[in-house]
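Field reference: sequence -> structure
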Amino acid sequence: MNGGVRTVRGAAAVKMPPDALIADVIVIGSGAAGLATAVTAAHDGCDVLLFEKAATLGGTTAKSGGVYWVPDNHLMRAHGIDDSRDRALRYMARVSAPTRYDPEDHRLGMNAWEFGLLAEYCELAPRALAFLDSTGALRSTIEAALRFPDYHMHLPEQGGVYGRALCPADAHGQPSGGAELVNQLAKAARRSGVRLVTRHTFTDLLVGERRIQGVQVRDRDTGKNVLARARAGVVLATGGFTHNAERRARHLPARVWGGCAAGTNTGDALPVLESLGIPLHNMDQAWWDQVAVEHTTGGSTETTAGMWVAPGDSSLVVDLTGRRVGNEKTFYHDRAKLHLGDNAPQLLLLLFDARTAKLFSCEDFAYPLVSPGEPASHIVSGNTWDEVAAEVARRLERLREVTGGAQLSDDFTNTLRATVRRYNEIARAGEDLDFGRGREPIELFFHGPARPDGGPDPTMAALTAEGPYHAVLIGLGTLDTKGGPRTSPHAQVLGRHGSAIDGLYAVGNCAASPSNGGYWAAGATIGPALAFGYAAGRHLGQRRVALQTSTRTRRSTT
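Structure field:
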């Protein structure tokens, strides 16, 4: 093992100490992707060592709603729901490559890598979920999924299907979230003998004998580097680069203020992959959302959540001229694209009245509203729209250095009054003739039931004639980025010529997503994380057996 082994970035020869950590499989990261890999590999006989950068397990998954999108899953079948995998694939292709989609093409207009990975996902995801369920690693429930629409129900390829967006079931069988998902997978990992090591940051790979041999991590408590050898392979599950300002500026197409990805998601694997000459793909893509800008200017770019839906019915979003800019209830990823493109606004304003603050602040999707007693310094208030405008202008002046000097237009207040009058008219009429608010099933789902004194359309109500009124500066954020190396259906990292890098795997948001700029549904992040983590674990289990057989054969012939 010692001969010819070096670190990738340092290009320095290393000698493994006698007490070096050794495992069949080393996993870097403990979100859904990393834990699914570890659980599966351990089940298949591998000795697994998992390093986590943070002090606690779970990464972004632990902060999430815990939904995973799995077409044709076993719970759907148990409920008699027919979900053709061909239909699911066509839907994914239509959303992932909308300008190239061709229903008559044998790859539906996608390139070979995109089609291959999405087609494999349709086969793989139901198997992965059934495996996790049958081994007791993850209990799932379809209860919420039966009414949880995909994000593009209007597309004919979607087919009106419900039941794909599953979530973990707690000990009482009730729908739960990301923390429960992590808790169940972590318990399964421990039962299987996986060694879970926290507060260790991935810094380098060890390479030798034309394959990846292990990793170098840094102990965050002692500052010392630790070398660990992997007999079968290394799996990168480090998440994206949401909280790396230099990477955001270099790769993403617009100003990104931050996001709700775990604060440890800083693209730790990228420099090592670049040093290996591995091409990176879809680096300009992310799972977009919007965030309260002032939540990202206090030293950390990590937010507690994203603005999944513009909260409230008596609420609207305007630009710094006072004009409404789009359908506020469009699901978060597509709504956030208001910030992308030439001359797109860097900043917008969420406006709402006291009625929305009272009725919606304790809802599941309330962010950036706050519950009583929570910090509210990001919310600007006034008794009239003139007062709100004056307070926003003062806030922008205070934020001048971070916004680049953004200001309200000279005629903002007059334009805003006209905008509010127009919005109140359409709210009372019950039809948004300007932007189509409230027409899509996902908009109604995220918004929830009609509230008292609302309009004919439950997503819209006229703003009250008297204040107080409130405003929040919002800007582009991410759940996380989705660029990285291309991978095979077994999650193997692909090199410059499309061949697998021996001993190296990538899963989750540190790998390139074949969804490109699309977002199929809730769970389109965690679903592939579980599925391709399972694929990596299975492949590594087979690899372990093959390596042991090869070793025994060599010994028997010497």
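Note: The chain is about 30% helix and 20% strand.
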